[in-house]
Prior knowledge:
12 helices; single chain; disordered N terminus
Amino acid sequence: MDEGAGMEALALGERLLWRFADTFGQCAANLLDCRHWVTYAVGPELKIKHFLAGNADADERCDYEHHFFALDPLAPERCLSEGRHVARLRDLMRADLPAYEEYRRCFLARHAIVDALEIFIRSDAGLTVGCSLLRHESEAQFSPEECRRAGELKPLGDFALSQTFPERQVSLEVISRRFPFLTAREIMLVQLVAVGLNNKQLCRELNISLPTVKTHLLNTFRKMGVTSRTELAAKILA
């Protein structure tokens, strides 16, 4: 594959993930009559790694990301570790836990959030995307019927994400079989490059520094016989 086709393959990976996240978020918001939403990538340790798309207030999202994500009852490490793939905030807030009271008083009340509904999408290749639907002051809390509709939407999201990034191309197991000389960390890096993550996002996803990301990339390029992220992505998505 030539360089021009390689650039096209890399751009495709970047566009596909954002397009899926944006389309799913808009569909969920329309289905559940919700004005504000945000989608994000979930890392292997079940933490939010980076936001993908959405129309949630920027200050609200920044406040959450820098100060309150660890207190959120709907955080992916809480929900997914308990097998919850659709969860409503009002069902999980516990008055007996001081941290939740701090979350209620210092974050929810500050931003006039009255309820939230979380949907977690997972592809056959192991990629996970979360979608937060937010209701604010003057809006009603999510009803049991709306939670049921969100539950019906989830398998459609699973299928769409699986079709966007097929297991036969980007699953860790397939990459490992195709390139057995790569280390476990390099295999994960190859997957993330193929779906379009940039170096800054790789730092957050793998919890390593930018120089370490660059070192891993160079080692991976050498082992796979490529000279750039473009060629690497093209080799996986071909």
